[in-house]
């Protein structure tokens, strides 16, 4: 029973641990090195021994280094056809282990029970095997079989004598007493063995509880028909509670604490685990902490018991606090999509947003406008006052442009002194032109360099409208860029120009209307 419960734990814990942090890898390696059970890590394809723990070295009589250079076939005394036959027999008997004969370094052959599960270890498929010496148990079985066989032979002989000699009643009585005594002795042996097994099972459960506490993860077991949820202390601690505050726990307890936006997604993952499409359940969601803030949880689990109609009865798994990991991920994601100086979207994020707006416009038959903005006179500010002053002006420029557009619009810094704006649901170039004028007007105000100095700049803006001036983001960018260039070079900057697919543009500001 020992390997069964260890495998039960590893199925729930080890694969997820190998997929998450180096800390859990180290914990598994400590468990592997220090556990008294004989453990091997094997290549599932070749049978090469990747690693052996000290218990394996002591059992086989080889050093750990020597074992790690051997193949399991060097140890297995059975020929390949006998190994294949044992695997078929285990499948027919629905066993989760195999019985082989292993050769020790001194030539001794031991009968062993091998329990194996596939895992991912150091990013490689690995067969994790636990070897238990059952030689004494098999010898005891054989002795009992021979003893039983001898008894049967004795009974047969005595029966023949009774049939021929009816006066041998005393012999029959003696045989009955012997058989009863043997039966009582066998029952006593089985009872003692059962008690020993139960004691070892309790010890193993205690070890597993200690290992789970060492991994610092919450555990849960869900009885699906009743909704009853069994949790450990750590499950409650992650959310700031003591275990007794959440007992009795149920599926509704988790649903109540789970973020409503995440619950629907998590429920779909659970439903998938109830089907044959995905035997494992894994999901990230937020749960409400006792102090009122949200905690990101990584939940993993598996259905452990089914009824005859293949309906799930019992599911078990873990909860892991990934709040800090999630915070760093969201921070890095924000940094990857944001211009570090101005806080506006960067070019990559702008392209992604533009693709989304374009797809929505195509689906809804809507319009939008794209403004390409280039600052006039920014290089002079950099050359005159220095790059620190230039950076300060860029930050203020971004702020003013953001105040000139709607919250639903998108502002991005494409690089240097180039910016872009997406005006959603803008049907006419005249509407976009009004926004362009507002941006130009806001930038015409002086920029404070210090208490005594002020800088001045303006902007040249090119306007392109979907779908009139292009049906792709690239076409709209090229068209608005060309219009901006016309406003800067031909109209001397400080104004805007509307793109025309036939290379015609018009401008409209306080100077009046002009054409290319």
Automatic annotation (TrEMBL):
The chain crosses the membrane at residues 170-191. Keywords: Membrane, Signal, Transmembrane, Transmembrane helix. Residues 231-277 form the PAS domain. SMART domains: GGDEF (SM00267), PAC (SM00086), PAS (SM00091). PROSITE patterns: GGDEF (PS50887), PAC (PS50113), PAS (PS50112). This is Diguanylate cyclase. Pfam families: GGDEF, PAS_3, PAS_9. Residues 281-334 form the PAC domain. Residues 1-19 form the signal peptide. InterPro entries: Biofilm_reg_signaling, GGDEF_dom, Nucleotide_cyclase, PAC, PAS, PAS-assoc_C, PAS-like_dom_sf, PAS_fold_3. Residues 366-501 form the GGDEF domain.
